[in-house]
């Protein structure tokens, strides 16, 4: 009996898509990779995922797990051979339990991140993971890439926000690690193998996630600074003044504001003349937002950063954040760029900025550089336009990457801070990870997926 015939017996009719129905599942978020597949499989339960994996294992069929398909490195897109199936978790989208006393929420891996946030909020709690795509990204994909976002500075990325997992392995075996424990020293912390593995070791089907108190007060400001060095000085000063109340700290270059004004004119511009650099900072605490805003204003004045726009209402704060979240969209409307999701130690950010720009301009004098990101945790989105080449810019990508990544390596950084490796950076990984690290990863991969059917061609 053929694989597809046996597969059809495992799922309801809506559980298998073929033909033109699957086109949207085969194209990555940035429209850079387009693959092929036998079918898109949409199970409704862990038992169905296990049955599908057992069958795929028996037939040697590659499996590409997919959440909301919002990734930026092509990790959820199959290759062009058409031999794989895409395993979409979109129908496994339930909030299974909220334990407010334990500050945990248990969810299916196909649950949209924004729905997890809403369920936590309804229980008077906060699920802190937050980035532009939370309305479409799903928990499984967020875990698979160890997603970050704007709150990592205070709350950590998905690795720090996860207590337990349920995973279906390559042979269909189910590991139930759905434990809401903060202390558990009974051997290896197996969940960490799967977080950030981009679907290459197994299929995450459910998770126990950490919640936090829903703080009543926020203070938000856009602060003009004259350099990246000044932004680091501001971060250190604010943390000295108000401690861990600093929950977000985003750096925005002048070029970002110019692109927003040109390509997103529907959004109100906060500055008459945008500064060279600016920081979007948010504090969170108990008490009143008015009192916290006054404290932020006092701290900024004491630190000598009095050129600031302080949000006077929730709406105004939301407007500031809407601008920040539209920076990627303004770049998309500008054209095709060579994108970098890098991180260096926070203290190295000023030197990285100077060195990378100097080296790039020596090789590409007419480049258009757009830099912004989560400077509070050292993660920068560092993007290069070369005129109006469109997708022809990719012809220069190896040379641009070599320049940027050389500076990153010199500052003990990483070529992927929160977007993962996928197929975009797979060939770069051996240049920036040691042979010992790569061999350990290959050993783990071979132990958990000896046939190599889990998301082949990604990461390794």
TrEMBL record:
<dbReference type="InterPro" id="IPR036318">
    <property type="entry name" value="FAD-bd_PCMH-like_sf"/>
</dbReference>
<dbReference type="Pfam" id="PF02913">
    <property type="entry name" value="FAD-oxidase_C"/>
</dbReference>
<dbReference type="InterPro" id="IPR016169">
    <property type="entry name" value="FAD-bd_PCMH_sub2"/>
</dbReference>
<keyword id="KW-0274">FAD</keyword>
<dbReference type="InterPro" id="IPR004113">
    <property type="entry name" value="FAD-bd_oxidored_4_C"/>
</dbReference>
<keyword id="KW-0285">Flavoprotein</keyword>
<dbReference type="InterPro" id="IPR016171">
    <property type="entry name" value="Vanillyl_alc_oxidase_C-sub2"/>
</dbReference>
<feature type="domain" description="FAD-binding PCMH-type">
    <location>
        <begin position="33"/>
        <end position="214"/>
    </location>
</feature>
<dbReference type="InterPro" id="IPR016164">
    <property type="entry name" value="FAD-linked_Oxase-like_C"/>
</dbReference>
<dbReference type="InterPro" id="IPR016166">
    <property type="entry name" value="FAD-bd_PCMH"/>
</dbReference>
<protein>
    <submittedName>
        <fullName>FAD-binding oxidoreductase</fullName>
    </submittedName>
</protein>
<dbReference type="InterPro" id="IPR006094">
    <property type="entry name" value="Oxid_FAD_bind_N"/>
</dbReference>
<comment type="similarity">
    <text>Belongs to the FAD-binding oxidoreductase/transferase type 4 family.</text>
</comment>
<dbReference type="InterPro" id="IPR016167">
    <property type="entry name" value="FAD-bd_PCMH_sub1"/>
</dbReference>
<dbReference type="Pfam" id="PF01565">
    <property type="entry name" value="FAD_binding_4"/>
</dbReference>
<dbReference type="InterPro" id="IPR051264">
    <property type="entry name" value="FAD-oxidored/transferase_4"/>
</dbReference>
């Amino acid at each position: 009996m053929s694989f597809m015939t046996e597969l059809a017996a495992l799922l309801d009719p809506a559980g298998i898509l073929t033909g033109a129905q699957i086109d949207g599942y085969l194209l990555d978020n940035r429209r850079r990779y387009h693959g092929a597949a036998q079918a898109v499989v949409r199970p409704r339960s862990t038992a169905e995922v296990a049955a599908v994996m057992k069958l795929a294992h028996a037939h040697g069929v590659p499996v590409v797990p997919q959440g909301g398909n919002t990734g930026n490195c092509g990790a959820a897109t199959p290759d062009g051979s058409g031999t794989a199936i895409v395993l979409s978790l979109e129908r496994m989208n339930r909030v299974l339990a909220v334990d407010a006393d334990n500050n945990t929420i248990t969810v299916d891996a196909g649950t949209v991140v924004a729905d997890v946030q809403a369920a936590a909020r309804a229980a008077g709690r906060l699920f802190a993971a937050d980035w532009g795509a939370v309305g479409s990204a799903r928990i499984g994909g967020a875990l698979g890439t160890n997603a970050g976002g704007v709150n990592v500075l205070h709350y950590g990325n998905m690795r720090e926000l996860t207590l337990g997992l349920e995973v279906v392995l390559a042979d269909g075996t189910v590991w139930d690690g759905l434990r809401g424990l903060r202390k558990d020293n009974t051997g290896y912390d197996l969940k960490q193998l799967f977080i950030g593995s981009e679907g290459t070791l197994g299929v995450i089907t459910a998770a126990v996630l950490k919640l936090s108190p829903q703080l009543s007060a926020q203070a938000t400001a856009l602060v003009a600074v004259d350099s990246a060095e000044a932004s680091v000085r501001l971060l250190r000063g604010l943390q000295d003044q108000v401690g861990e109340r600093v929950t977000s700290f985003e750096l925005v270059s002048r070029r970002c504001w110019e692109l927003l004004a040109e390509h997103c004119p529907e959004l109100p511009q906060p500055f008459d003349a945008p500064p060279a650099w600016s920081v979007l900072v948010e504090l969170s605490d108990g008490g009143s937002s008015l009192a916290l805003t006054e404290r932020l204003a006092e701290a900024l004045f004491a630190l000598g950063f009095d050129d600031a726009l302080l949000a006077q209402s929730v709406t105004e704060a939301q407007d500031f954040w809407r601008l920040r979240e539209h920076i990627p969209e303004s770049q998309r409307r500008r054209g095709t760029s060579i994108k970098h999701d890098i991180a260096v130690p926070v203290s190295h950010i000023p030197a990285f900025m100077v060195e990378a720009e100097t080296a790039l301009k020596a090789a590409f004098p007419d480049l258009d550089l757009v830099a912004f990101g989560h400077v509070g945790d050292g993660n920068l989105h560092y993007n290069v336009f070369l005129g109006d080449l469109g997708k022809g810019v990719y012809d220069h990508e190896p040379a641009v990457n070599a320049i940027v990544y050389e500076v990153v390596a010199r500052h003990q950084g990483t070529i992927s801070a929160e977007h993962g490796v996928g197929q975009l950076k797979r060939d770069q990984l051996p240049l920036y990870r040691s042979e010992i690290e790569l061999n350990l990863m290959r050993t783990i991969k071979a132990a958990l997926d000896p046939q190599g059917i889990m998301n082949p061609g990604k990461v390794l």
